[in-house]
Write a structure and sequence with these properties.
Elements (H helix, E strand, L loop, with lengths): L3 H15 L6 H20 L9 H17 L5 H11 L1 H20 L6 E7 L4 H4 L1 E11 H5 L1 H67 L4 H36 L27 H8 L1 H22 L6 E14 L2 E14 L8 H66 L5 H30 L1 H6 L7 H8 L10
Antiparallel strand pairs: 1-2, 2-3, 3-4
Helix pairs in contact: 2-5, 2-8, 3-4, 4-8, 5-8, 8-9, 8-11, 8-13, 8-15, 9-13, 9-15, 10-12, 11-12, 12-13
Length: 488
């Protein structure tokens, strides 16, 4: 038999090499999320939570219900706050952060040594006259030598995961803001078409009465009626687009069941008196874009991985084996026992694989990361310029429709009505002018929507979190004659 002291002595050497590492993966997860929350709060000034248990889920749910109850109709800032509390995809992104935190913590742990025991001479009395007991402990000393590099790489990946989670948070906030703008603009279009339909209905009734007296031909009456029918079709189409836009907002906020009974405003806010000047928007974007920081960390991690590959180019596994061998012989009824210590070094001889392929692969990965970073820097500058150009130009366009096109169309309709009452122009000309005025109003609403969307895209251009989808905007734009009434 082997005494406990010998076993302890056999284990002592590899355990002394591995050291004693302690840590707390939960606290590391919390530290990672706190960094994400602080970074996103500096941009959005909103609270975000990582829900990890039932109590936190109930608390977040109660907060969402409270926000919905006290904010009627739902404003854009409340919608963004609800999404940050309730979006399940965002919670999945935070879980990825926790997974990366666990990887970083795991990297600080050394590989467990392998212990093996064996014996011969078990069985017949003849074999038991000569018994050998062997024990061996194996430790990868190359892993110990490169431990600091592994920890550095894992830490870089962890910081990268923090920034990625922050980008995802900003994406959810930006998508929700855009979806709210799209939904409100769609319902505003509905409201405009409903008002136009009321006017068209009155004209249609007048045409029918004039027809009864013989003052209007059947062709002229048909023009009146088809105008009413077309307006009704456009209104139904606009209402559908508005409902779809609201559903996009609902998905981003993660609402369901009784929570769906919320309303958005009937119209977008008016245009501001002036636009903000962002002459240094390119420099701001280069300094603050979180996705650019992620690309920088990718290059850093790849460089560290390249160094690790270079360090292990020739020898990838280097193991030290420590153990013992105890032999027992029985001769002339006398037992003799002899114990011998063993130390072995085991590694692969790089005859065929000299590591050139692995080195080339690491070099290519580094070049790839470097070029992606350079591309990202170019794109960030361009995206910042484009965002400000869209913001500035859409403001001018929206003001042009508000100050020039719509007032002129209203004046044309007013004059047309006066001449119609004086029997100078016919009903068809009046309806044409009315239709043109409706189209101008809808174009004005859409121009205002485009401005607010451009304004919402400024922050993502500077800090990151650009559009992941544009479904709400696309749906509203596809039905350019849609927008906001009651009961939605």
């Amino acid at each position: 038999m082997i005494g406990p002291r010998r076993i302890i002595m056999a284990l002592a050497f590899p355990l002394a090499l591995s050291g004693c590492v302690t840590g707390d993966d939960y606290s590391r997860n919390e530290a990672g999320f706190i960094s994400v929350a602080n970074k996103t709060a500096s941009v959005e000034a909103k609270e975000t939570v990582w829900i990890q248990n039932q109590n936190q889920a109930r608390s977040a749910g109660a907060q969402v219900k409270s926000l919905l109850a006290r904010t009627k109709p739902l404003d854009v800032e409340t919608a963004v706050q609800i999404a940050l509390l309730n979006n399940k995809g965002l919670q999945a992104a935070y879980a990825d952060l926790g997974d990366r935190a666990a990887d970083a913590w795991q990297s600080t742990m050394f590989i467990n040594p392998t212990v093996s025991f064996g014996t011969t001479g078990i069985g017949t009395p003849e074999l038991q006259a000569f018994k050998t007991i062997e024990g061996m402990i194996t430790t990868n000393i190359l892993a110990l030598a490169t431990k600091s590099r592994d920890v550095a790489i894992a830490d870089t990946r962890f910081r990268q995961a923090q920034l990625t989670a922050a980008v995802r948070t900003l994406q959810v906030a930006a998508d929700t803001r855009r979806a709210w703008i799209g939904a409100v603009a769609a319902w505003e279009n509905v409201g405009q078409l409903q008002r136009a339909q009321a006017t068209a209905d009155a004209a249609s009734e007048l045409a029918a009465k004039l027809g009864e007296t013989g003052a209007m031909t059947k062709g002229a009456q048909a023009r009146e009626h088809v105008f009413v029918a077309e307006i009704a079709g456009e209104t139904a189409k606009a209402r559908l687009a508005a409902r779809l836009a609201k559903e996009e907002l609902t998905r981003l906020m993660g609402l369901w069941g009784s929570e769906l009974d919320y309303q958005v405003p009937n119209s977008l806010p008016p245009l501001p008196k002036s636009v903000a000047k962002r002459d240094t928007i390119e420099a701001e974007a280069l300094r603050n874009r979180i996705d650019l920081q992620v690309a920088k960390l990718e290059l850093e991690a790849t460089a560290k991985s390249y160094g690790l590959t270079e360090a292990t180019r020739y020898v990838t596994d280097l193991e030290i084996l420590t153990g013992f061998e105890t032999e027992r012989e029985i001769e002339d009824d006398e037992k003799k026992t002899r114990t011998t210590a063993q130390v072995e070094l085991e590694f692969a001889i790089p005859i065929f694989d000299t590591g050139k392929a692995r080195m080339r692969k690491a070099e290519v990965a580094y070049m790839r990361a470097a070029n992606l970073l350079a591309e990202k820097a170019v794109n960030v500058r361009s995206e910042a310029r484009s965002a400000y150009e869209a913001y500035r130009s859409n403001y001018d366009i929206a003001r042009h429709y508000r100050n020039n096109v719509v007032p002129l169309r209203a004046k044309v309709e007013e004059e047309s009505l006066l001449t119609y009452n004086g029997m100078i122009t016919n009903t068809f000309e009046l309806l044409t002018d009315t239709r043109d005025k409706i189209n101008s109003i809808l174009l004005s609403v859409n121009a205002k929507r485009d401005f607010w969307l451009a304004e919402a895209n400024l922050a993502p251009a500077i800090y990151g979190g650009g559009a992941t989808n544009a479904s709400a905007e696309t749906e509203v734009a596809a039905a350019s004659g849609s927008g906001g009434g009651g009961g939605h």
